Amino acid sequence: MVEWRWMSRGARQVPDPWATPLIWTFAYAGAFALVVLLDVCGMLDRTGVALVTVSLLAALLGSRGRFGAAPGTALLCWICLNVLGTEPAGELSWAGHRDPGWMACLLTATVLGTATARILHARAAYRRLSPPDDPS
Fold it and tell me: d(Cα 30, Cα 23) in Å, to the nearest integer?
């Protein structure tokens, strides 16, 4: 007798986070590409838009990385945003009224992305491993 089963059901491994150097490479390259794209579109003078865009990138990368990669990811995104997105362009500077908030925003986005991904993966793994309700 043939028993039909869904291929998608059953225990599957929770995906492993990407390696930290890979996350950091994507963080710097992605932030660089986003800042250049915003500059080409003429939206770089609005630093809030640039910060939100780079924060979304940081959250996306956080969802694929480890918690330990979060500070480095936020730092690399901030460096790219600071060097290319603010005056004086091409120089790393520290504005005491702006940069701590930017660093906090980027770090929060990265940590929230990582925590959300871990919760969703754990929830999906729990649902796959829990037995289905048998009405009989």
Answer: 10
Residue 35, both tokens: 């800042």
The residue with tokens 């910060």 is 51
pTM score of the predicted model: 0.82
Alpha carbon distance 96, 71 (integer Å): 19
Percent of the chain whose pLDDT exceeds 70: 86
pLDDT band at 54 (very low <50, low <70, confident <90, very high): very high
Picking from 56, 63, 69, 57, the residue whose alpha carbon sits closest to that of residue 21 is: 69
Confidence of residue 3 (pLDDT cuts 50, 70, 90): confident
Axis-axis angle for helices 70-85, 20-40 (nearest 10): 20
